[in-house]
Structure prediction request, 402 residues.
Amino acid sequence: MARPLPTSPIPRHFGLDWLRIAAFAILIAYHVGMVFVPWGFHAKSPHGADWAVLPMLAVNAWRLSLLFVVSGYASRALLGRATGVGGFLGQRTMRLLVPLAFGVAVLVPPQSFVELVTQHGYRASFATFWLHDYFRFGKLAGIGLPALNHLWFVLYLWLYTVVLAALVGVASVTAAGPVHGALVRAGTMQHLFERVFAGPLVLLVPTAWLIGVHAWWFPMGYETHDPAHDLMAHLIYLPAFLFGFALAGAPRVLAACVRYRWPAGIAAILGYGVIVGIELSSDAAEPPRWLYPTYGAAHAIQQWGAIVALIGHAERRWNRDHRWRPLLTEAVFPFYLVHQTIIVVVGYWLIPAGLAGGAEFAILVAATVLGSLAFYLIGRKVEPLRPLIGLRRLSKHKVPAS
Prediction:
């Protein structure tokens, strides 16, 4: 019989809350950078520069995997507060799929419109596009409509939550007890996780897995963000999500991340150095095929090394509360929902202005932060809007904190 976890509450680690906030902030800055690099994006600045690829590559390998790790970590606390696996899944479905539907219907259309106008010669107005072309459930100039765009993350997060709920349900049955209270009866797998990853294997095993993905199975592969045809992404992000969930109940593994944070960081820097070296030595859009395995292995080492290092440093240095933490923790999801639309629309408006690249970048950052903040602050005060931006409904007598 599987042995249940102890029934004492999981101690709160504020460092991972701060890391989640920082991860979303990095993602916003990354998407602003997408306007300037020579990679595909919905709005492109005339001041694009090849050199901008180098700082983007410093975070490209690990930014999304980190989001899934911290989302899995947060899911454990949410599950602990739920009435059971079914209640947890119902709550997460409402908090993810309702904003996803709202985002696809209302927030994403301006992104697709700007891309069609600036890159495919679309001539109709936005009203015509939204009312007549966007909900075609087909392609227009090669763009699938309606579109997920950046909201693919929300869909994948919900899919992985379904997998998690199924696994926890099986574990709770095996443990001969219901899921209730602050801890989940995760049984043998949780104890095996802590036993395996409480030492240097926390760095070595996931890195080996990711080398297999990037250097062996999918060398120089690309994610499709189509859940039915995105095996590479699922092999990366689902384990990352489940790792984060298990980490929340494994203090010895968290301690191992702290212990190995410096070697992990050095490994990440070395991996990034190899990638930069290959990029600078190649004049082609992609490195020669014979370098694919080396590039993929370096990508994997950078990816997991950065994640372990960031978790370790966050736990070591940021494990303290602050009065702004609850507000920022609540704000990150609404910020995520709207930030890319603001970037694309403001970037589109800036194209005819003829500003210098630095001025464009500064305006985009300021507009994105201020616009996302307004979206969150207004949405949290208006009760019918709260579910649409991923916030809980207020109780009858509760007033939003200022």
